[in-house]
Specification:
Elements lengths: L4 E6 L2 E4 L6 E4 L3 E6 L17 E6 L5 E6 L8 E7 L5 E7 L16 H10 L7 E4 L16 H8 L3 H4 L3 E3 L24 H6 L7 E5 L3 E5 L5 E3 L6 E2 L2 H10 L3 E3 L29 H5 L7 E4 L5 E5 L4 E5 L26 E6 L3 E8 L4 E11 L2 E9 L1
Parallel strand pairs: 7-11, 8-9, 9-10, 12-15, 15-16, 16-18
Antiparallel strand pairs: 1-4, 2-3, 4-13, 5-6, 6-7, 8-20, 11-12, 13-14, 17-18, 17-19, 20-21, 21-22
């Protein structure tokens, strides 16, 4: 998914947004990437919402999920506290990536997988605590404004959000950042936005930390963003996000671009760093994750489903959420072809549309990922369950 971008560096920028007059601030030492095919001036820029939010999601049998979003702090990651009593000492969540509908703006019909996935996701009502969207949430160029019909038709209605009744946490994919800058992090503040829709979209920043019952930690990062270390000047991922991962040592990191991939176009990614901080159109931030202390990475971008087990990290790739399926992967869920990394085993390597469900037992500290594969005509199979 080559991304023709122009890189623009900022030290500090403060300006005034037309309309509500709210200030826009960009942190120093960040490099913003603007797609050549979608000039930034054609979209309104949305400033980050720094306010505290408290949300409650009522499930059946007097169970509930509570979410508290802390106030923004320029020196650390935005933190979200999630508590749930849905299933005692077990936590479950759906993971889905590349879930946009290609060519939606050109009249693409909701049929086949794009139509059937909502019914399947809805069957998990009362069985999961939240949903993770790992980028490319909207095709082909993200969402253009608060009134973009994709909010309702592609996300809210299609994915049966009102039936699931749990919060959605997301990161930005390479298609998302071609839309209105900052919009996916402040959708709840859009003037006239449907309150029910705003209630379920909880993505307070491009990089943020979700703590579940005070025991499970997830760090969500923008892998489209390139930071520069002010001391070494070495390019890598966002400095604050990188330091947070070192400090938190999270159970999961969520980003869009993969660390590892089994496709033939992803050979030895870390050896192909360009001067502009990209890996042949991929993400240097994702490659940098291999050097950080955490257990499991959740991502998408490659349109299929994969599980990679390395020496220090595991990777759950769930890019089969809606885009055109990738080539170069195995057609068997246990194909096990080379991951193009000597120290990484490709346990799952599947050309398929689908999603995954991760379940964590807080008592035994065991967790597993269950891949749900779409085989057509409203039929699904559990292609494989893997211990994480």
């Amino acid at each position: 998914m080559k991304n023709p971008w122009t890189s623009v560096s900022f030290v500090t920028l403060i300006c005034t947004q037309s309309g509500n007059g709210m200030p826009l601030r960009f942190r120093p030492n960040l490099q913003l990437q603007i797609p050549d095919s979608a000039p930034a001036e054609q979209f309104q820029v949305y400033s980050e919402d720094s306010r505290v939010r408290h949300l409650q999601y009522e499930l059946r049998d007097n169970k509930a999920v509570h979410v508290h979003v802390d106030e923004a702090d320029a020196e650390s990651l935005r933190k979200v506290h999630l508590t749930t009593n849905r299933d005692g000492r077990k936590i479950s969540f759906i993971v889905l990536a590349d879930s946009g509908v290609p060519n939606f703006q050109h009249g693409h019909k909701m049929e086949g997988f794009h139509k059937d996935i909502g019914e399947k996701l809805g069957s998990f009502a009362g069985k999961v605590d939240f949903v993770v969207l790992a980028g490319d949430n909207f095709y082909d160029h993200g969402v253009k404004d608060c009134a973009d019909p994709q909010w309702k038709e592609v996300w809210f209605d299609r994915l049966r959000v009102a039936k699931l009744k749990v919060p959605f946490f997301s990161v930005l994919g390479n298609h998302d950042v071609e839309g209105a800058p900052g919009l996916q992090n402040v959708f709840q503040n859009c003037e006239g936005v449907d309150e029910e829709m705003a209630h379920y979209w909880v993505s307070p920043s491009t990089n943020y930390h979700v703590a579940v019952n005070g025991e499970i930690n997830l760090v969500f990062i923008n892998t489209n963003e390139v930071g520069t270390d002010p001391v070494t000047r070495k390019k890598g991922m966002n400095i604050i996000a990188s330091q947070a991962i070192k400090d938190i040592k999270p159970d999961f990191v969520v980003g869009h671009h993969p660390m590892y991939a089994a496709g033939p176009t992803n050979k030895k990614r870390v050896n192909y760093i360009k001067s502009d901080g990209t890996l042949h159109g991929e993400s240097i931030a994702a490659a940098h994750l291999r050097n950080l202390p955490f257990s499991t990475y959740i991502c998408g971008h490659v349109h299929g489903m994969q599980f990679h087990r390395g020496v220090n990290h595991k990777q759950i790739l769930v890019g089969g959420g809606g885009g055109t399926l990738a080539t170069g992967l195995g057609s068997n869920p246990q194909h096990g072809s080379s991951s193009n990394f000597e120290d990484v085993e490709a346990v799952v390597n599947d050309i398929a549309h689908g999603f995954a469900v991760i379940t964590i037992d807080l008592t035994t500290h065991k967790s597993e990922v269950e891949y749900h594969r779409y085989i057509g005509h409203r039929k699904w199979v559990i292609s494989l369950s893997v211990d994480i």
